[in-house]
Structures are given as C-alpha cells and as structure tokens.
Design a protein that fits this description.
By secondary structure, the chain is α/β, with parallel strands linked by helices. It is 36% helix and 23% strand. The structure holds flavin-adenine dinucleotide (FAD) and flavin mononucleotide.
C-alpha cells in the first residue's frame, strides 16, 4: 500500500516535472517568437532619408511621409547623416531623396556619409529607391544620387526602381516620380509640390553702392519696405528678374534681421563675357527704381539658421557673402562672442560697410574683425589664410563650442575655407563639427 502511494507520488512528480519543462520551453519559445516578430516588424519599417542643401529634398521627403501616413503606411523620415548602421541593418526599404551640390558632391550635412559607411556593412536585406535632385546646367547632374545608389547596390541593396532624377524641381519630373511611388506603395499619387511660400510685396526705399571707387564690379545694398517679417537670419529670398514670372528665379541672402523692420540685400552686379549686366543683378542694381514694387518669396534655410545663441560664433565670408552673415551678426545676443573674417579685393576701395563693422567692433558686438584683402599691395591674403594665421584662436573658440558660419561664393572662397579648415582641424574634427551642426554654410 505504501509502495503504491509512493509510486503514484513519483508519477505525479514526474508529470509535474515534464509539464514544467514543457511550460518552460513554451515560455522560451514565446519570448523568441515575440522577439522575432518585433525584429521582422522592424525590418518592414520604411524609412525616407533625405540629403538637402537648400531644403527641396527635405521638403519632398516630409511631404511623402505625410502622404504615406494618410494612406496608413508609417515611415520614419530622417536626414542622411543621422542614418545609423543599425537602422540600415533593420530597415527593409528606404526611399532616398538627395540633392547634389558643389560640383557633384553631397549636400554639406551628408558629406561624410559614404566615407563613414563601412564597406563590410552588408545590405542584402534592403530595397532602395533613390530620387536625385539636381540641375542639368551643372556638368555633374545628380552625381551624388548616382554615387549613393551605386555604393548601396555594391553592398548588396536591391534597386527596386531605376534612379529617378528631377531637373531644377521641374513639375513633370516630380509627377513622374510620384506616379512610380504611388504604384509601388499602392497609394494615390498626389502632386509633389515645389515648396514655395506665398509671394509677398516689397518697395525699394534706398539703393547704395558700397564700393563706388572700386575696380571690381559694383556691390549694392538695397533696402526694401515690406509688411512681411517672417524670416530668420540665414534665410534667402527668391525673385523673378523684372518681376516677370516667365524668367526663372534668382536667389539672394537676406542681409537684415526681421527685427530691423526692413528687408535688405547685398547684390553684386555681374556681367557676362560681352560685358552685358546679369539679368537679375542688372535689374536690381541699375534698373529698378526707388518706390518701385518687387515680388519676393522667402526660402527658409534650416541648415544656415543660428545654431546656439550662447556659444561663440565664427563668421567667414567674402564679397556679397557678407549679406548672409550680417543678419546673423545683427541678431547675436549682447555680450556674445562673435568673430568676423571678411574678404574682399582692395583695402582702399572695397572696405564695404566699414562704418557699421567698426561700430560693431568698438561696441564689442564683434569681439574680433579680421580682413583679408586679396589685392592688398602690402599683405595680400584670403580668408582661409587668416584661419591659418589665427589657428590658436580658432582652436580656443572651437573648444568653447563655437559654430562656424560660411557665406558667399562656393568657387574660391567656400572651397578654400573648407580645405583650410580640414587641413587645420583634420577630417575627424570637421566630421564632428558637421554632426553637431557647428559648421553651417550658405554657398553659391
Ligand atoms: C543660395 C544663394 C544665395 C545667393 N545670395 C546672393 C547674394 O546675397 N548676393 C548676390 O549678389 N548674389 C547672390 N546669389 C547669386 C544670385 O542668385 C545670382 O546668381 C546672381 O545675382 C547673378 O544673377 P544674374 O541674373 O544677374 O546673372 P545672369 O548671368 O543673368 O544669370 C546667372 C545665373 O542664373 C541662371 N540663369 C540665367 N538666366 C537664366 C534663365 N533664363 N533661366 C534659368 N536660369 C538662368 C544661370 O544659372 C546663370 O548662370 C545667390 C545665389 C544662391 C544660390
Ligand atoms: C552652389 C550650387 C551647386 C550645385 N551643384 C550641382 C551639381 O553639381 N549637380 C547638380 O545636378 N545640381 C547642382 N545644384 C542644383 C541643386 O541640386 C538643385 O537646385 C536641387 O533642387 C537642390 O535641392 P536641395 O534644396 O534639396 O539641396 C547646385 C546648386 C547650387 C546652388
């Protein structure tokens, strides 16, 4: 009898052990399944990644995200420089919308992406669609989009649509891309709009030649009265030469703070090979009359807005590049540390806005003001030479968290500054400044 009780207890115990073991296995399996489901869900995650210098690609990416979301498909939208290796590994599909800048290169914020992408990062799981924004008047049309697609494909990604390109934000190119995307995601195609806020009206109040004795082409400051005041330092305006919508737009940096109550531009009068004045600069600097109206549209430039108000700022520019820096300097808070390095040709005739800059220096609104005159008979130099001369100050300011702002022509000045900084600071520090939004440019 005792033996029988002991046997049934043993049987019960054994069944208990087996059941517990099964339960334990089931628990492990459920955990594993849940993890797998999360991972596979993660992999179907769609991302929209943009690289943009002047905002077009970013705007299209955000517009597409909204369109997909309205159709019930959620997508994570982010800039290319923030796309991590982990995100690349757990994405199933990525739509890239990238512009090309500066002779076939990536926009500034995305300059290091391909360099930093490890070649051993395998992308067999990833489907990509690349849309390139560019302008056929540049020889390297949409070259960065091509490079990006080729590199991702070389690392195993599948190209689900052939590379599509948009020339100068042409509506027909955008519609074609929209139709493909709509097809791919089974959604309704909508009109991809070239983002442009409403046009507003302004009246020319004053025009002043800033370099009347110069042998260089004229540089003019234009002051407009307008009720529009919705811009930030770093933004630009678009206008059609002669207010004629049949003529394509030109872009100008806004040279004044909105708080000043005026919209100001600093415009270089350009000439072509036959000495004919440029269509737009000729109109602005010579033909447009005082009291005449002009239609503008404001272009917001998040990449060139102010970064951190309380850390020092280093402003570097030449010629008309002073325009985009002037609005920033005017808006810097009291007691902030501001260093301007400004380049022009001749110290005697091209010392533009001299009174205003010296006043800023006297009042210590500018902590330092360095000039670089390329045709100075005594000490000819460029802005990038000042950086090399002042390397110690540069390092100290950067160690204090300074942001660098560069504005003006890309050829010569913009390139020269980038090369000099890379040489002085090294690629890694340039990369880190860029990642932290502490190297901001508006180059043209
Ligand atoms: C972001 C940015 C900011 C700028 N800020 C300033 C500034 O603050 N001050 C300043 O002086 N300049 C600035 N510029 C340059 C300015 O936009 C003009 O390029 C410059 O004034 C010359 O224009 P233009 O019409 O006088 O010369 P044009 O010789 O008539 O034209 C210059 C360029 O405009 C384009 N263009 C000309 N005709 C046509 C056409 N029919 N259709 C399409 N495109 C055409 C071409 O690319 C041509 O190379 C900036 C440019 C950019 C991109
Ligand atoms: C200074 C400058 C350089 C440019 N370089 C190129 C180029 O090399 N190749 C090209 O296809 N487009 C070039 N573009 C045209 C831009 O790619 C095009 O305007 C695009 O719509 C900008 O998109 P984003 O606003 O997203 O940067 C350049 C534009 C500027 C202002």
């Amino acid at each position: 009898m005792l033996e029988m009780i002991a046997d049934s207890t043993r049987q019960l115990l054994a069944t208990g052990v087996v059941l517990s073991y099964c339960g334990f296995c089931f628990w492990i399996w459920r955990g594993y399944r849940a993890k797998q489901q999360i991972e596979s869900k993660g992999k179907t995650n769609l991302r929209i990644v943009w690289a943009s210098q002047s905002g077009n690609a970013q705007h299209l990416a955000e517009q597409l995200q909204q369109q997909l979301s309205a159709a019930g498909t959620s997508a994570h939208c982010l800039p290319l420089d923030q796309l991590t290796r982990k995100q690349l590994n757990n994405s199933a599909q990525i739509i890239f919308i990238v512009s090309t800048f500066a002779e076939g290169e990536a926009p500034e914020h995305a300059r290091f992406f391909l360099k930093k992408l490890p070649t051993e990062c395998k992308l067999q799981h990833l489907k990509i669609h690349v849309l390139g924004l560019g302008d056929r008047r540049y020889p390297d049309f949409c070259q960065f989009a091509e490079q990006l697609q080729a590199r991702l494909a070389a690392q195993g990604a599948t190209i689900s649509l052939p590379l599509m390109t948009v020339d100068n934000m042409r509506a027909s190119d955008l519609s074609e891309w929209q139709a493909h995307i709509a097809d791919l995601f089974a959604i309704k195609a909508t009109e991809a709009r070239h983002y442009q806020p409403a046009w507003f009206n302004a009246t020319l109040l004053e025009r002043q030649c800033l370099n009347p004795d110069s042998s260089s082409p004229g540089l003019y400051k234009l002051r407009f009265k307008t009720t529009y005041c919705d811009w930030q330092a770093g933004d630009t305006v678009l206008l059609h030469p002669s207010n004629d919508p049949a003529l394509s737009t030109r872009e100008y940096s806004i040279a004044s703070s909105a708080a000043s109550g005026y919209l100001e531009l600093v415009v270089r009068l350009t000439y072509d090979a036959k000495q004919t004045p440029g269509q737009c600069s000729g109109w602005l600097c010579q033909t447009l009359n005082i009291d005449q109206h002009i239609e503008f549209s404001c272009c917001t430039k998040p990449n060139f807005h102010a970064a951190h108000n309380h850390t020092p700022a280093i402003f570097i520019g030449a010629g008309s590049g002073l325009a985009g820096l002037r609005a920033h300097i005017a808006e810097r808070p009291k007691f902030s540390q501001n260093w301007l390095i400004f380049g022009e040709r001749c110290p005697r005739t091209d010392n533009i806005l001299q009174n205003e800059l010296s006043q800023w220096l006297r009042s210590q609104h500018l902590t330092y003001l360095n000039y670089a005159f390329s045709r100075d008979p005594l000490e000819p130099c460029y802005v990038q030479d000042v950086l090399a001369e002042q390397q110690q100050r540069l390092n100290t300011w950067l160690a204090q968290g300074a942001t660098i702002y560069v504005c003006g022509r890309l050829q010569g000045m913009g390139r020269g500054v980038q090369e000099a900084l890379t040489q002085l600071l090294g690629e890694e520090q340039m990369y880190s400044l860029q990642q932290q939004g502490r190297y901001r440019t508006d180059l043209y």
